[in-house]
Specification:
Layout lengths: L1 H25 L4 H18 L7 H11 L3 H14 L6 H11 L3 H14 L4 H13 L3 H14 L6 H11 L3 H8 L1
């Protein structure tokens, strides 16, 4: 366990240093300069994968976060998950990435796995709500969206998903009240 922690914190410090450097290099930068700096940071992150003393799953997670292409995002998360399915919110992010690629069954598997790990994962409930809405089950979508909202109404897109689910169920007055 000590080796795991040592590796994790070494990786954390290394990635944090790169992110700090990126932040320093992009203060008051043009969009073009910022893009160049982000690309340089991504290359440095990829080079870190060659260091056996660092946690590759952690680096892959951040490479996913830097990816603008949906397929690259999904690929980095998938590789991260295969190495360490317990890292951060990888299950939820991978479920949402699979959904965006039209892989709805795979998305459901990852989101269900996230809930198996933590029944109070508002992002997983929200992800399942979106899947249900996409599959045409607005009643279940609303039920799941409300579950996410009850757990953490200020979570990313939780309120929006709940409002959409309310509208899909003809509850526009509730949706209006929630959006006020």
């Amino acid at each position: 366990y000590y080796d795991f922690l040592e590796r994790y914190y070494l990786t954390y410090d290394t990635v944090e240093s790169l992110l700090s450097e990126l932040e320093e290099n992009t203060v008051n930068s043009s969009e073009e300069e910022m893009t160049v700096q982000i690309e340089a940071c991504k290359k440095k992150l990829q080079q870190l994968l060659e260091n056996p003393e660092l946690d590759s799953s952690f680096i892959m997670y951040y490479l996913a976060l830097f990816s603008e292409d949906r397929n690259d995002y999904y690929s980095w998360l998938k590789q991260c998950y295969e190495l360490n399915p317990e890292l951060f919110d990888t299950r939820v992010l991978l479920g949402n990435a699979a959904r965006r690629l039209g892989k709805l069954e795979e998305a459901r598997e990852y989101l269900d796995a996230a809930l198996a790990k933590d029944k109070e994962d508002h992002a997983a409930w929200r992800g399942l709500a979106v899947l249900s809405l996409l599959e045409g089950d607005s009643t279940k979508g609303l039920e799941l969206a409300k579950q996410a909202y009850d757990l953490y109404p200020d979570g990313t897109y939780v309120r929006d998903t709940c409002i959409i689910a309310l509208c899909e169920n003809g509850k526009t007055e509730e949706a209006d009240a929630m959006s006020a």
